[in-house]
Amino acid sequence: MQIAILLYENMTALDAIGPYEVLSRLPGAKLCFTAERAGPVRTDTGFLQLVAQRPLEEVPSADLLLVPGGPGDVAVRENEATLDWVRRIHAGSTWTTSVCTGSLILAAAGLLDGKPATTHWASLDTLAELGAKPRRERAVWSDKIVTAAGVSAGIDMALRLAAKIAGDDFARALQLGIEYDPDPPFDAGSPDKVEPELRDLVRNALLRA
Amino acid sequence: MQIAILLYENMTALDAIGPYEVLSRLPGAKLCFTAERAGPVRTDTGFLQLVAQRPLEEVPSADLLLVPGGPGDVAVRENEATLDWVRRIHAGSTWTTSVCTGSLILAAAGLLDGKPATTHWASLDTLAELGAKPRRERAVWSDKIVTAAGVSAGIDMALRLAAKIAGDDFARALQLGIEYDPDPPFDAGSPDKVEPELRDLVRNALLRA
Fold this sequence. Notes:
2 copies of one chain form a homodimer.
Chain A: E1 2-6, H1 13-23, E2 30-35, E3 39-42, E4 49-52, E5 54-55, E6 64-67, H2 73-76, H3 80-92, E7 95-99, H4 102-108, E8 116-117, H5 124-129, E9 133-134, E10 139-142, E11 145-148, H6 153-166, H7 168-177, H8 196-208
Parallel strand pairs in A: 1-2, 1-6, 2-5, 6-7, 7-11, 8-9
Antiparallel strand pairs in A: 3-4, 10-11
């Protein structure tokens, strides 16, 4: 199974690395990080570079495409070469997936027109402007397209994909392997669960990013 | 606040990237990925390289040290230069932390002698052999040393560290920012929660890695 993960400048690393840690361990998985150019790609904090093994033109197809999010999505949405690549991969994929604002890239490529989808909670309006029908859910399944909510939601989505692809027992083994028995310190992971002031503060900080 | 994250060949990426995504966003955080040599470091699946910005000798101190785990811990535990660096950083740190089998490296450096600590559930015996008092907990706090359980446990630990360092409201904002409202598909993230056969299967797969 060929898995392609798109990298781009100013992406959020965990959007890609959470699902990677699950999907790369599927039976027979061959996973490739790819970007416009091969080599180091700077993520949104400025502190980390992930290495793209191959440029997009050397990745002609994939069974599973994952598009992460991050503030860099804005530039990718205007990059016709990358959007063309996304469309080409999607045309032959079994699964086309995104995490966080990665769905805005899928939408900009025209893959979500009129379809239910999700994204980071602070970007649902933008997702609607790009033609999708936004949903406030952890992951939205629409035929072969799966869009996950913000950043950490990619881990939950990847485990569900693993169950579809390799069965529940294999997915449970992967979950045990990464000891994913979450114990967040606060019940503050969703905009419905915090006071409006905190929600606005985080939304504004993200818009500045 | 200077944060140093150790990279090494055959580490598990999510051990580092989960906490990085939280800690790099603390007020005034300056975060550095460092390794024996600067440049790309191959992670345990063989599909991903993370870039170390600076070699260890150019990182003389840090307020917070994070040591991730992964099958490569075995080689690091025999690398006296790296263990010396860990000891030097720990001598001046405010927090010394690990995720997964990163605690085996802390133990090999002599930092956990007789102290309570945790690690990936499949490595608790090794942690005891290295002189620590193993605990089956999501994170163990022992003065300034904090050790987290396997892989994904680093996210929970990092949010708790963020609360100690920047206050509960800031940590809640970070949790909301990464939309950490976990929804795992199975209740299989802990060895206590699965059948012995699945536990043995995962343990053996990890030992082969």
